[in-house]
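Hey,
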Amino acid sequence: MAPAALVAIGALWLALAIDRWLGEPPARWHPVVWMGAWLGWAGPRIAPAVDARRPGRFKPFVLGTLAWCAGAAMVFVAAWAVQWHVMRHLPWPVAALTLALALKPLLAWRMLRDEVLAVEAALAESLDAGRARLAHLVSRDTQSLDAGAVRESAIESLAENLNDSVVAPLFWFVLFGLPGAALYRFANTADAMWGYPGERGGRCWAWAGKWAARLDDGLSWAPARLSALLIALAAWCWPSGLAREARRTPSPNSGWPMAAMAGVLGVRLRKPGVYALNAGGRASVSVDVHTCAMLGGRAVVAAAVLATAALAGTGGAGLLRIG
């Protein structure tokens, strides 16, 4: 096996092991937190205030595009520099560990799983506690949700973020190494912070965040569909009408893993007034949240196995291509 493939495969599994046993690094050392800091600083400078007179479309769009590209360039260059040094100057076992430490913050399965299970644990205390805990995961108003809707939102969040936090970063890592995974996480974070179709936080994002939203759509297209396949493999069950159900959501991508999870669990997942996935399914109960977390864990392992096979088959070309 090529040395680049050994480094990449070792880094992948070590990163997942670090995630499993140690979780997230401190915020001050977390690259996704750094990305968020840049986006948070630039956001008010590109998105017009909602009460601004005739903000137009062209200027917010151009500013949003330029700010996105500037942030993406910084992320790409930093990741490339780390990978270049690792591949050129370190023996492969040390290189694999170093690359794993850089890759791990771009993957967040343990945190996602723990947060979703914490919602169910909070629900066991009270509905208000469950709503409050769910607010850590979703941007929607949780105060009007009943217990079933809280569980539905938690399951949706795990399914959607399984792609965003694990499958998609691994997909782009296989293709383009650490810069690919880092650039994807920047794009996904930018979409989460800027990619709103209207007003949020007193700012109008309709055009300022359009570039960020469209880039995330493009980069997530293939991984989202792969995530749906991995969920089906984890359950050893193909959900009927998956493509039809996936198209019910406004997003071209998030509906795929959410519809797959709804189908294999046999539950309905709804965002009132927006969509209903597997509408004929039953209401979610406590065991569904735990089953969802179990299936997500299996999907993560399956994603790692597929990534390993791809890296072995290509000789770690993604690391060589960018490094």
